[in-house]
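During the second year of the project, the team shifted from modelling isolated chains to modelling whole assemblies. The rationale, set out in the original proposal, was that interfaces cannot be judged from single-chain predictions alone. As a representative example for this report, we include one of the complexes processed in the last quarter. Its constituent sequences, exactly as entered into the pipeline, are reproduced here:
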Amino acid sequence: GAGVSQSPRYKVAKRGQDVALRCDPISGHVSLFWYQQALGQGPEFLTYFQNEAQLDKSGLPSDRFFAERPEGSVSTLKIQRTQQEDSAVYLCASSLAQRGRYEQYFGPGTRLTVT
Amino acid sequence: GIQVEQSPPDLILQEGANSTLRCNFSDSVNNLQWFHQNPWGQLINLFYIPSGTKQNGRLSATTVATERYSLLYISSSQTTDSGVYFCAVEPDSGTYKYIFGTGTRLKVLA
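Output from the structure prediction step:
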């Protein structure tokens, strides 16, 4: 079956531009997560949705970062006025989160480079 | 917050060798997964193992939750096993998010 997909796979933005990153989770998965992975580091949590409700956004680094999942399926992570420190790989994960199935499945990521 | 330490940080093996990777965590956890991040950056699920032992081909994993550690065993390593291995834990606080370990970078030589 289809896994988690993300688009675009690569994005180059000039400092100050806004970007939007898309995540299509596995069909039927209730939970959706965004993580940020800097070069040479492990992924770090950004935000979590259960269906359309954003239950945790404690990892978003600033108010320039905004995420939504309006219909409980596709999610978009938006970064306004990008800065060089935003350069990283942004990973999306989804989980069935019921009937004992809590493992997270990750997409291929979007590599964002801010110049 | 919870600390997740992995060892060794780097490992070089000859093809066919066996290895054990360790993940220590500083507090109780709800869930634990092992991932392999391949050279193209994709995180591949290896095991979902909050407790007990599982095996899948040349790989097996054991989590002893009461002692706060998990082990990943790789037998008869192949060059395709190269990459970074992460353990990730969900703290026992119902937060749902994963805290990733520091990773073990594995290189298998032909």
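Chain A touches chain B through 24 residues (CB under 8 Å). Residues 17 and 81 of chain A are 5 Å apart (CA to CA).
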